[in-house]
Every structure is written in structure tokens, then in C-alpha cells.
């Protein structure tokens, strides 16, 4: 499909300086509104391209999904929910969905462009495949703020893992892929595909669950960022399953007391015992490492602290 379109110019990854405003939502988008640039990546149901909205010159990521593949895997319902949820969320650490359109064979999602790509690859490129404690604490604060925002709107993500996180132009986290998200509370007994590693005990056991499953996954992610692999990883899924249910947690010696304390407080088998997101933002290990720049970009944190004054 690339041959049909003009390539973007070299400097086109910068948003136009004269227009700081958002891409304007159009009632009816079509492919004619965009110039298509280089491919950004390949997903299960199609490809993602860098693109520019011609009128505003706004740079976006255009995700092209093939209807036939979605139908084959019975994913249309899930995609509809993903669009409905993600297009209504506005937070600096949630990847924005600007809109969508479709033609006979494809569905196009107009997404915010995440200039620094995939968190998963960035983590793998680090020395020993893990982040420092200050970097991890700053990521945790961004995720906690974004999830507070989602949970306040009764949206549970349920699938927070490095593969579903992108990085913005300032290195900030962008939660993407709301394909498994639901409006809380949920008693949906869905078989989640892929790895068990991030699933909370109530989900692996197929019990009812609420937004506190995202607290568990934050604990798993915090461990993975600091150690390089998730805490219950095993070759055989039944072993992972047993370790999750027992919360069989082992920490390497290099972790600080503060980081272990936070992970332990998130990885509680009973959802009601998990540390709430607001308390996570006040946890001494997070506060100790939180940079003023990241702090200034946390909308929920800003509101909470200004209300306390
Ligand atoms: P997905 O189909 O969502 O798994 O996307 C496939 C790949 O495209 C990802 O692994 C990313 O490398 C890239 N990608 C997807 N969405 C974006 C985006 N909004 N900004 C930049 N790259 C993206």
C-alpha cells in the first residue's frame, strides 16, 4: 500500500511548531486525509505506519487492521470495546486514540505517535536487561497516575506488561493496547491468551475481579523492570500458576529494601490488601526517586497534592 502515497519528509517526526493544538476530530476520516510514511511495526492483525494528517500536518501512528483476520479470530467485539474505551481517555501516560475509519477490507486506528517506540525493546537493550531503581520508580509513578485516572472512570486495563507500553518523545510511558480492558467490575471468565506471568491470582483462578488486578500487574512490572524477568517465570505454565497462587516471591540480593517493600505490598494475594495507587505515589521509595520533571507531568498527583495544601 505504500506506493500509493507520498513519503513523509525527513524531519516529519516533529509535530508542526505553529500548531500545538491536537488533531481535530473529524466526523468522517478517510485515507485521503493522510500521507503515509515508514512502517513503525507489525502486529498480529496488521501493520502500523507513521502518517501525517495533511491539513494540520499532525504526525500520528496509523494502525491498519485487516477485517478478515479480525473476523477469523473473532476479535471484532474486542476491537470495538478497545476503540470505545481508548478514544475516551485523555492522560499524558495513556496513548491517545484520535479516531478511526474503515473501508471494505481494513480498519484504521488513528493513534498518538510514540516517538521512542516499545518499552519491551528498550528494557532488553539495558545493561543486564533491567532498569535502575530511580528509573523504575519514575515509571511506576507515571503508571500509577495513569491507572488512577483510568480507575476513576471505571476502566481496568488488565494487561499491563512491557509489550503493551510505548515510550513518548520525552521517554514518558504511554499505556497502549486496551484490547483486554473492561469497565469495572468484571466477572468475565475469559481465557486470556499468552503468558500467565502478569495475571493476578483471582484472574488465573477465573474468579470475579475488579480494578485491583492492575495493582498486582504493577507489582509484577516493577519486579521485571528491576530484575529483568517477571517474578514467577517458569518454563511450564502450571508451575507459574502454582507460584502465582502461593505468591512464591524471591528477590535477588541487589534490590533495595524500599523496592522490595513496594513490590511486596502490591503482590498481595487478596486484592483488598494491595497498596492503593495513591499510597503508591506516596511510598518512600517512589518519593525518594521521583524527579521533579516527571512529578510535574503527573496530573492526578498534582491535583492530590494541591488539594492537601
Ligand atoms: P501492535 O499491532 O499494536 O502490536 O503494533 C505493532 C508495532 O508497531 C509495535 O510493536 C510498535 O513497534 C509499533 N507501534 C504501534 N503503535 C505505535 C505508536 N502509537 N507509536 C509508535 N509505534 C507504534
From TrEMBL:
Q: Which UniProt keywords apply?
A: ATP-binding, Kinase, Nucleotide-binding, Serine/threonine-protein kinase, Transferase
| Enzyme type, top EC level | transferase
Write out the catalysed reaction.
L-threonyl-[protein] + ATP = O-phospho-L-threonyl-[protein] + ADP + H(+); L-seryl-[protein] + ATP = O-phospho-L-seryl-[protein] + ADP + H(+)
Q: What is annotated as the active site?
A: 159 (proton acceptor)
| Cross-link position per record: Glycyl lysine isopeptide (Lys-Gly) (interchain with G-Cter in SUMO2) | 161
Which compartments is it annotated to reside in? Answer: Midbody
Signal peptide, first to last residue: none
- Name of the protein in its database record: Aurora kinase
Query: Which stretches make up the Protein kinase domain?
Result: 34-286
* Family stated for the protein in its record: Belongs to the protein kinase superfamily. Ser/Thr protein kinase family. Aurora subfamily.
Q: Which Gene3D superfamilies does this entry report, sorted A to Z?
A: Phosphorylase Kinase, domain 1, Transferase(Phosphotransferase) domain 1
Give me the ranges of the annotated region Disordered: 1-22
Give the Polar residues compositional bias ranges.
9-18
Q: Which residues bind ATP?
A: 44, 63, 112-114, 163-164, 177
The cross-references to Pfam families, in alphabetical order and at most eight, read: Pkinase
Q: Please provide one cellular component term from the Gene Ontology annotations of this protein.
A: midbody
Annotated GO molecular function terms are: ATP binding; protein serine/threonine kinase activity
Q: Name one GO biological process term.
A: mitotic sister chromatid segregation
Annotated organism of origin: Daphnia galeata
**Enzyme Commission code(s) on record:** 2.7.11.1
Amino acid at each position: 500500500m505504500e506506493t500509493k502515497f507520498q513519503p513523509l519528509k525527513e524531519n516529519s517526526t516533529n509535530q508542526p511548531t505553529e500548531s500545538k493544538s491536537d488533531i481535530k476530530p473529524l466526523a468522517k476520516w478517510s485515507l485521503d486525509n493522510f500521507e503515509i510514511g515508514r512502517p513503525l511495526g507489525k502486529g498480529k492483525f496488521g501493520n502500523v505506519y507513521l502518517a501525517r494528517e495533511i491539513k494540520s500536518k499532525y504526525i500520528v501512528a496509523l494502525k491498519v487492521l485487516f477485517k478478515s483476520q479480525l473476523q477469523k479470530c473473532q476479535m471484532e467485539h474486542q476491537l470495538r470495546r478497545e476503540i470505545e474505551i481508548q478514544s475516551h481517555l485523555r492522560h499524558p501516560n495513556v496513548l491517545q486514540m484520535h479516531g478511526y475509519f474503515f473501508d471494505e477490507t481494513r480498519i484504521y486506528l488513528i493513534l498518538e505517535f510514540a516517538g521512542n517506540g516499545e518499552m519491551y525493546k528498550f528494557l532488553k537493550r539495558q545493561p543486564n536487561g533491567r532498569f535502575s531503581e530511580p528509573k523504575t520508580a519514575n515509571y511506576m509513578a507515571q503508571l500509577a497516575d495513569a491507572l488512577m485516572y483510568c480507575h476513576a472512570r471505571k476502566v481496568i486495563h488488565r494487561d499491563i506488561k512491557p509489550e503493551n507500553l510505548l515510550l513518548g518523545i520525552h521517554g514518558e510511558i504511554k499505556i497502549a493496547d486496551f484490547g483486554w480492558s473492561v469497565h469495572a467490575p468484571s466477572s468475565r471468565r475469559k481465557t486470556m491468551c499468552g503468558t500467565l506471568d502478569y495475571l493476578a491470582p483471582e484472574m488465573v483462578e477465573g474468579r470475579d475481579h475488579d480494578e485491583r488486578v492492575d495493582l498486582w500487574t504493577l507489582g509484577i512490572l516493577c519486579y521485571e523492570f528491576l530484575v529483568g524477568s517477571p517474578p514467577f517465570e517458569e518454563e511450564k505454565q502450571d508451575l507459574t500458576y502454582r507460584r502465582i497462587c502461593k505468591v512464591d516471591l524471591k528477590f535477588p540480593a541487589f534490590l533495595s529494601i524500599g523496592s522490595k517493600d513496594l513490590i511486596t505490598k502490591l503482590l498481595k494475594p487478596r486484592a483488598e490488601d494491595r497498596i492503593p495507587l495513591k499510597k503508591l505515589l506516596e511510598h518512600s521509595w517512589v518519593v525518594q526517586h521521583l524527579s521533579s520533571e516527571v512529578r510535574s507531568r503527573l496530573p492526578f498527583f498534582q491535583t492530590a497534592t494541591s488539594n492537601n495544601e
